[in-house]
Amino acid sequence: MPHYLFIVASTREPGHVGNTEWLARQAAAGLPADTAQTWLHLAQMPMPAFIDRRHTVGTYPWPEGHLRTLLDATMGCTDLVLVAPVYWYSFPSTLKTYLDHWSAWLRIEGLPFKAEMAKKRMHLVTTSGNREKAQPMIDSAMLCAGFLSMPFAGVLWGKGGPPAAVQSDSEAVAAAAGFLQGAR
After folding, report:
1. What is the pLDDT of residues 21-73, one digit of tens each?
2. SS in 3 state form for the chain?
3. What is the pTM of this model?
């Protein structure tokens, strides 16, 4: 059964739904009613900075706290949806930290992270002032998926900016309706 994990990377204040999350929720509304969905807001899940021990210790322990919640949710989904507004032409720092920890998860003894990730699909929902500014982040997401042999299922981009701006982007709103459909 499909299970969509929505990793929301916005750093908006709690309770404020930004353009990117609003667009992702429009896409999620198009999923069949019985499709499992998990929404995790990275700004509400403080993570430690990633420490690169690949060339010293070589392995990592199983994570604890929020990182363990994120690992379990990541391993338990069939589809990973990165919900990330463009910040300085790239991922928000919350998402970058989550992705950095993938380097540790690749090196946890007994965890077949890379093999399991290859069975999942990655989607990206993003907003920015214009599509050109989103391209570096889109490229990064595609490279991350490719490194783990994950099928990259596409990008849903909308024109963002001030609060609620994406709601006026009729093309993005129309594309959201079918973005996740036909997903399995």
Report:
1. 999 999 999 999 999 999 999 999 999 999 999 999 999 999 999 999 999 99
2. CCEEEEEECCCCCCCCCCHHHHHHHHHHCCCCCCCEEEEEEHHHCCCCCCCCCCCCCCCECCCCHHHHHHHHHHHHCCEEEEECCCECCECCHHHHHHHHHHHHHCCECCCCHHHHHCCCEEEEEEEECCHHHHHHHHHHHHHHHHHCCCCEEEEEEEECCCCCHHHHCHHHHHHHHHHCCCCC
3. 0.96
